[in-house]
Write a structure and sequence with these properties.
Elements: H1 3-30, H2 34-39, H3 46-73, H4 75-106, H5 113-120, H6 128-160, H7 164-212, H8 216-223, E1 234-235, E2 248-249, E3 252-253, E4 259-260, H9 263-270, H10 280-288, H11 295-323, H12 333-336, H13 339-347, H14 350-388, H15 394-415, H16 423-437, H17 439-447, H18 453-474, H19 486-503, H20 509-518
Antiparallel strand pairs: 1-4, 2-3
Helix pairs in contact: 1-7, 1-14, 3-4, 3-6, 3-7, 3-10, 3-11, 3-14, 4-10, 4-11, 4-20, 5-6, 6-7, 6-14, 6-15, 6-16, 6-18, 7-11, 7-13, 7-14, 7-15, 8-11, 13-14, 14-15, 16-18, 16-19, 17-19, 18-19
Length: 523
């Protein structure tokens, strides 16, 4: 390991130590009771709620997946996805945040998403809605945490020129350690810090890359001749060999004719924004804020952070293609996701590069800790205490939660064993799963009094099942069927909720009375 790498290691290790200290500091309060462990005792301020929500939401794909996508196939795909995410972020904070904060408190002081669904529809005995929602969280967050571990493994392997699997395991162990100790409060406070580091790193790396490339005009001149690369309605198509490696001629990367980027594709990428209505890691911040009126400030903070971060990530990828048009280290789609790391190591002093790269580590950890914690709460709080052992003590719930956290982490590690996984692809599947199964039900639960328990179950099952069916069976047919599975699954889930609700008896008077009370409940 050379001197430069050692300096990068020092910067990254220093950051990791700070995060572990946060875990230890928060451990005492987290262990007081399950409410503190899972939602921090509803004590988050507007800045922490906003920044931790966005940091946990964006994950490693913001600093690796989005730049990699832009580097590989140009502006359109990454830009339309970013627009969908930005609009989804704003609408989620505007429409869902306050009603969900009020209703989750009124409906049995719910502290998890499955518990809110169950309490909202007054499940009494077997609790099928709670059980199905919990199992979906368990599965999709195992996939999600796997995507984070892939990003961590790629980061450390690229950084220290070490084998991928041991580097991935080191990153996973670190995340497990501080989440295990400090719970939601440690996660939220560290995510707040990580959100700051992420946006600083993105802006700094973009600025350095533009300067190194000779300015914006030079960047534009270098990439505008690539067919479809800077089009809003076209897509660059790298020419690759049978191994997926982009071909190069006389130092110039080869591209085919631009692929069309039509209306269906735009709708497909914009539909990423629908996912926000069902994202547990974001919705829990609405539960956890101190007062509902503070969510207005949180919305503004979150929207501005999201806009700056997504734009910077997108343009890092485009500028990276101008700086490193035919680098062997970026010659496949999966390898292109290292563009942020390569720019940082090339343009910054090793210590500063370590700080920039800590931004990726921050993104990875801010998401994986949320995924592990929410998955463990789904088993411990919802399945164990909610269904299997209703008189379970807080101590027992906490023990089951930590055992589950370890089990989900192991499942995520198994998902991450394939170092050729494309982070963006893995994330998109899990995002669709939550968006389609939970998103419609969140909206109907908050805004449609006629929604019934049977309709809710039908919506969750339909949305989750259609993500698998569309992705595995229908999408490969291509053409109009190649649309991102979130959109058709979301719409079919909405249809299932409405149709089944109208075909079943109206909700009880108790449920309807609570629905009306939630509109004006002060918390």
């Amino acid at each position: 390991m050379d001197a430069n790498t050692i300096q990068v290691l020092i910067a990254v290790a220093s950051y990791m130590i700070v995060i572990v200290v946060i875990g230890f500091v928060c451990a005492r309060k987290a262990n007081e009771n399950s409410e503190n462990y899972f939602i921090g005792g509803r004590s988050l301020g507007p800045w922490v709620a906003a920044m931790s929500a966005e940091a946990s939401d964006m994950s490693g794909w913001l600093l690796m997946g989005v730049p990699g996508l832009a580097y590989w196939c140009g502006f359109a795909d990454a830009a339309w996805t970013a627009i969908g995410l930005l609009v989804g972020t704003y609408l989620n904070w505007l429409i869902v945040a306050k009603p969900l904060r009020r209703y989750s408190t009124l409906a049995g002081n719910s502290i998890t998403i499955p518990e809110f669904f169950s309490n909202r529809f007054k499940e009494r005995s077997n609790k099928p809605l709670l059980t199905i929602a919990s199992l979906m969280i368990l599965f999709f967050f195992a996939v999600y945490s796997g995507s984070c571990f892939v990003a961590g493994g790629k980061l450390f392997a690229q950084l220290f020129q070490m084998p991928y699997i041991p580097m991935m395991l080191i990153g996973a162990f670190f995340v497990i350690l501080y989440t295990f100790l400090g719970g939601f409060l440690a996660e939220s406070l560290s995510d707040f810090l990580q959100g700051i580091i992420m946006i600083i790193a993105l802006v700094a790396v973009l600025g350095a890359a533009v300067i190194a490339a000779g300015g914006l005009n030079a960047v534009s001149d270098n990439i505008k001749n690539i067919p479809g690369f800077v089009d809003f309605f076209g897509l660059a198509t790298p020419v690759t060999n049978v191994n997926g490696v982009q071909e190069v001629s006389n130092g110039v990367p080869l591209f085919g004719s631009a692929a069309p980027y039509g209306l269906l594709t735009i709708l497909s990428t914009l539909s990423w924004g629908l996912g926000y209505f069902g994202m547990p890691q974001v919705l829990l911040r609405f539960f956890a804020i101190r007062r509902s009126h503070e969510l207005t400030r949180s919305r503004r903070i979150a929207t501005v952070w999201c806009a700056i971060s997504l734009a910077a990530a997108l343009f890092i990828g485009l500028t990276g293609r101008a700086l490193f048009p035919a680098s062997a280290d970026l010659s496949t789609y999966a390898a292109a996701e290292n563009i942020f790391i390569i720019i940082s190591r090339t343009l910054f002093h090793p210590l500063l590069a370590g700080i920039m790269i800590a931004g990726i580590l921050a993104a990875i950890m801010s998401s994986s800790d949320s995924y592990l914690l929410i998955a463990s709460s789904a088993v411990a709080k919802d399945l164990f205490q909610g269904v299997l052992k209703k008189n379970a003590t807080d101590k027992q719930v906490m023990l089951v939660s930590r055992i589950t956290l370890l089990a989900v982490a192991v499942a995520g590690i198994l998902v991450a064993l394939d170092e050729n996984s494309v982070i963006f692809t893995v994330v998109s599947f899990a995002w669709a799963g939550f968006g389609a199964s939970f998103g419609p039900l969140v909206l109907f639960s908050l805004f449609w009094k006629r929604c019934t328990h049977a309709g809710a179950v039908a919506g969750v099952v339909t949305g989750g099942a259609m993500v698998f069916i569309w992705n595995l069976l229908i999408k490969p047919l291509g053409g109009a069927f190649g649309i991102y599975e979130l959109l058709p699954a979301f719409l079919l889930s909405c249809a299932a909720i409405v149709i089944v609700s109208l075909l079943t008896p109206p909700p009880s008077r108790e449920i309807q009375k609570e629905f009306e009370a939630a509109k004006t409940f002060v918390c």
